[in-house]
Design goal:
This protein is of the alpha/beta class. 54% of the residues lie in helices and 12% in strands. The chain is built from 11 helices and 7 strands. The strands form 2 sheets. Strands 2-5-6-1-7 form a 5-stranded mixed β-sheet. Strands 3-4 form a two-stranded antiparallel sheet. Helix 1 crosses helix 3 and helix 6 runs parallel beside helix 10. It is elongated, with a radius of gyration of 33 Å.
Length: 342
């Protein structure tokens, strides 16, 4: 039979291991409790900050709201106290963890009162926007909210021009019908029965698109259509260009123009009273957002889905020489043919 001392020596390593595991478990729970306490202080600080913003809206910004009285206060409250899904998930996880710890200890995990003294530090960090960088502008532009300059230009271009001229309307022919009439009248053939819209990375398109294989000389435009917009009879025109070199033995024509909103943005960047350094630094982001949003609008509204083709391209080659727009267009049209689009 082993002696009592031998038995104690045998169980001593197990006892040490148990104590070690207990300390680790205790440290983990202490860490969770501390996280819960910190997040509680953050929530209190954020709620108090939003309450201040709400009172500021009531006192100084009532003229920014169309409604009045209690409806206005309700809209203000929704703006000031709204949160995103991620915040809701985090708060729910904290509440769940706090309830679990309450079930284990029979007491709520609350932060020490002294910790509330750090709330002004939170306000300071949020007030100076410590997380800000120039990437913040880019991320804001990339989001889909319709409030940025790029989506605004694309929406205006679509609703104020393309949606009016591309599909057929009562009393007005659509683009494809006008192209077919043009072909029959002029005895020519179009490469694609769509409006080609050029979107160069420089955003600049000359008033006369120049190319060694494209010309506008002696070529008449498509039939002009007139539409009433806000009490004004506005004419809408589409120019036609001709390839000067035969393609598979045929001289093709195209309805072609540049993206005028991008030209307006280019002019805004070069005009000192209207430009900002943010516009210049984020011009690539704005260009791509404009292109993607306009493409989405054209595709998602059935009457315009196959009526226009956006051509995004680099205005200059890698060696610094300017691209020939005609060659860029010919390559794009060839790809369309290979994909069965016309």
């Amino acid at each position: 039979m082993p002696s009592k001392k031998e038995v104690l020596q045998c169980h001593l390593p197990l006892t040490k291991q148990f104590r070690s595991d207990k300390r680790k478990c205790s440290s983990m729970f202490d860490y969770i409790d501390t996280c819960i306490q910190i997040l509680c202080v953050v929530v209190i600080a954020e709620l108090s900050r939003r309450l201040f913003l709400y009172l500021r809206e009531i006192l100084w910004y009532t003229n920014y709201y169309e409604s009045t009285g209690s409806d206005q206060w309700w809209i203000m409250a929704k703006r000031c106290f709204s949160v995103n899904i991620e915040t809701i998930v985090i708060v729910m996880l904290v509440v769940f963890a706090a309830l679990v710890r309450f079930a284990m200890n029979a007491k709520f995990i609350l932060p020490p009162l002294g910790w509330l003294c750090y709330i002004p530090l939170y306000w300071l960090l949020i007030g100076v926007n410590i997380s800000f960088s120039h990437l913040s502008y880019a991320n804001w532009i990339r989001q889909s909210h319709g409030l940025d300059y790029a989506e605004g230009m694309a929406s205006n271009y679509f609703h104020g021009y393309l949606k009016l001229t591309l599909p057929s309307h009562t009393g007005h022919l659509g683009l494809k019908e006008r192209i077919e009439l043009y072909e029959a009248k002029e005895k020519v053939e179009f490469a694609v029965k769509r409006l080609i819209i050029l979107v160069p990375n420089t955003m600049f398109v000359n008033s006369r698109i120049e190319s060694r294989i494209l010309t506008k000389a002696g070529v008449v435009p498509l039939e002009t259509i007139v539409k009433n917009r806000a009490g004004v009879e506005r004419p809408f025109k589409n120019d036609v260009y001709k390839f000067t070199v035969p393609i598979n033995g045929t001289t093709y024509y195209v309805a072609l123009e540049g993206a005028t909103p991008m030209l307006s943005f280019f002019e805004a960047m070069t005009y000192q009273p209207s430009t900002t350094w943010q516009m210049k630094e984020m011009k690539r982001e704005i260009l791509l957002k404009f292109y993607k949003h306009l493409k989405k609008l054209l595709k998602e509204w059935p009457p315009t889905e196959d009526e226009a083709e956006l051509v995004l391209y680099n205005a200059y080659k890698s060696n610094g020489q300017p691209q020939d727009v005609g060659e860029v267009l010919l390559s794009h049209i060839t790809n369309m043919w290979n994909e069965g689009r016309s």
